Amino acid sequence: MTNPVQLSKKELNKVFWRSYQALGCYTYDKQQGISYMRALLPALQKLYPDPEDLKEALIRHNVMFNTTCAFVPFCLGITCAMEEEYANAPEGTFDPQSISSVKIALMGPLAGIGDSFFWGTFRVIACGIGAPLAAAGNLLGVVLYLVLNLLPSTLTRVYGFKLGYQGGREFLAKIQADGTLEKVTEAAKILGLVVIGGLVPAIVAVPVSLELNMGGGSFILADVLNSIMPNLLPLVLSVVVYHYIQKGVSVNKLLFLLLGLGILLTAVGFFPMG
């Protein structure tokens, strides 16, 4: 762009408040991705007044994203800083792919930290203190639960967004000046692929229960496949589904196909019941 453009407090506030809708459009294939893209829209519209540039930015963020909701503003702040840097950078000096790579690389570690603290610690402590008081009819129990549960996440949202945007701008300026941006981008891409790969055995299950009796012995297909490579079938299934998504097959069609296939294989005894 010929004239430098900078996000104002107005656009940043809109992005922040939209971060509260991270679960407002949760889908199977993109999870929080569409809500994340919608939260960025005020910033993207300011940075890319040209419709084609805006379209490119929306496509860039129309991808899978999922992390603890309290850390979504932090990721949005960094993304705003990187989009602002890209919008003002001379052509060919900033790789826009690094924006998505950094976002994807952050979501896994932040989800692990956030779920442990906000779901496994703060909420449990808040319930442990507030529930007995509320059960005794004391309104203070409700107040304490709300304060102990919501205050940490609210502070994380507010200061996380500021830290992500301000820190992201300073960090990007520094690493771009000394030439390490390309290395950081490549490292983020690798880490992002590792995060996505680690999700496969965690969320994809192919519970094979086929067992055959052969000559007094038993042939357990699951044990054979796991001896070749643990979680081989989830990996194969993920690769096949990804292949068809890349070919333009509707995700809804694939979901119904997998549902029907699962029912059929369960009926014939290939998958366990229940």
TrEMBL record:
GO BP term, pick one: phosphoenolpyruvate-dependent sugar phosphotransferase system
GO cellular component, one term: plasma membrane
Domain of life: Bacteria
Keyword Mitochondrion appears in the UniProt entry: no
InterPro entries referenced in this protein's UniProt entry, alphabetically: GatZ_KbaZ_carbometab, PTS_IID_man
Keyword Translocase carried by entry: no
Transmembrane segments: 117-148, 190-208, 228-245, 254-273
Keywords in alphabetical order: Membrane, Transmembrane, Transmembrane helix
PANTHER family according to UniProt: N-ACETYLGALACTOSAMINE PERMEASE II COMPONENT-RELATED, TRANSPORT PROTEIN, PTS SYSTEM
Protein name (record): PTS system mannose/fructose/sorbose family transporter subunit IID
Lineage: Bacteria, Bacillati, Bacillota, Erysipelotrichia, Erysipelotrichales
